[in-house]
Design a protein that fits this description.
Elements lengths: L1 E5 L7 H11 L4 E5 L7 H5 L2 E15 L9 H5 L5 E4 L2 E4 L9 H5 L5 E16 L4 E8 L7 H18 L2 E5 L6 H7 L4 E6 L3 H14 L6 E8 L5 H8 L4 E6 L2 H8 L4 H4 L1 H19 L12
Parallel strand pairs: 1-8, 1-9, 2-7, 2-8, 9-10, 10-11
Antiparallel strand pairs: 3-6, 4-5, 6-7
Helix pairs in contact: 1-11
The structure holds iron/sulfur cluster (2 copies).
The site of one iron/sulfur cluster has 14 residues, from helix 3.
């Protein structure tokens, strides 16, 4: 099973939930930090690293001596990462998405694959060896995170499959392309939110953004007791099960500030996260409702 822990905005407690889930998980588990722009799951799980490797993107390298400035590459590139100005060929590797299209269409063989460093993939073990760990770290100045996320997902599959491990993904917050990419491999998306007006607003955006993926979703309410009942009413209407409500508790903030896994530091909350893990298993295994057939015209 792959569980993605996501949220509509930062600061809702997503990493707290992801780290606690990995901590209490029964059976082999791999914790994956896909928030490659600002990874912080390792600050809590404190893994011992077993390996790391650089991740790179294939970008075109031009051989101007062969170029006839026909413009076929520029016409194809939707990101304007390569262009022709008269008899000058300009490539902007930082804007390249690595699709390889320009290399494929060049009739002169004037473009060859080069590489741009994206960052690195790191992996190891936490929790005394019980928890596998994998993360990506984007190079400072690199703007494109999805290719590095794909490298982390590939590494995570290599680690999880032989071990028969379930996977807990800490997804980047928000509803942009990286967030969608992070939840795409999941069997279940767990949305972490707080019941404040801002929290509810961004939670709805995330729910609506992930709906087209057609994946089961469930909710964890953090700082329960704040705000009104909008969130609960919305979840009822949208058939979104609330799997856990984490109380507003200063001790959680203190444990977070110290870099502790909350389920390990606060024994009374350990059972709450164990119940959450059990309920996640139940929701992921539950039969999916069959969509009603559209009436014939
Ligand atoms: S497609 Fe090839 S030959 Fe044409 S402009 Fe681009 S690099 Fe030059
Ligand atoms: S590899 Fe794709 S994105 Fe990069 S310059 Fe070529 S066409 Fe554009």
């Amino acid at each position: 099973m792959i569980v993605a822990v996501a949220s509509g905005k930062g600061g809702t407690g997503k990493t707290t939930v992801a780290s606690c889930l990995a901590w209490v998980w029964k059976g082999p588990v791999l914790a994956v930090d896909l928030d490659v722009e600002e990874p912080n799951l390792h600050l809590f799980l404190k893994p011992r690293l077993d390996g790391r490797r650089p991740a790179a993107l294939e970008v075109p390298i031009a051989d101007e001596a062969r170029c006839t400035f026909c413009g076929a590459c520029a016409d194809l590139c939707q990101f304007k990462a390569i262009t022709v100005l008269g008899s000058v060929l300009l490539a902007f590797p930082e804007m390249c998405h690595g699709c390889g299209g320009c290399i494929a269409v060049c009739p002169q063989g004037a473009l060859a694959p080069g590489s741009r460093e994206l960052g690195e993939v790191l992996w190891g073990h936490a929790g005394g060896g019980r928890i596998g760990f994998c993360m990506g770290r984007l190079r400072v100045g690199e703007a494109l995170s999805p290719p590095l996320m794909r490298a982390v997902i590939a590494q995570a599959r290599e680690l999880a499959l032989p071990a028969g491990a379930d996977v807990v993904i800490d997804a980047p917050p928000g509803t942009s392309c990286p967030a969608i990419q992070a939840v795409s491999p999941a069997d279940l998306i767990v949305l972490v939110t707080e019941p404040t007006p801002f929290g509810f607003h961004d939670f709805r955006l995330a729910h609506e953004a992930f709906l087209p993926l057609g994946k089961p979703m469930a909710v964890v309410v953090n700082r329960a007791g704040l705000g009104g009942e909008d969130l609960h009413g919305y979840c009822r209407r949208e058939n979104l099960p609330i799997l856990a409500e984490i109380p507003l508790d200063r001790r959680i903030a203190r444990a977070y500030a110290k870099g502790d896994v909350v389920a390990a530091a606060l024994t009374d909350l350990h059972a709450l996260f164990e119940r959450l893990a059990d309920r996640i298993g139940g929701v992921a295994d539950a039969p999916r409702p069959v969509p009603e057939a559209a009436p014939h015209a």
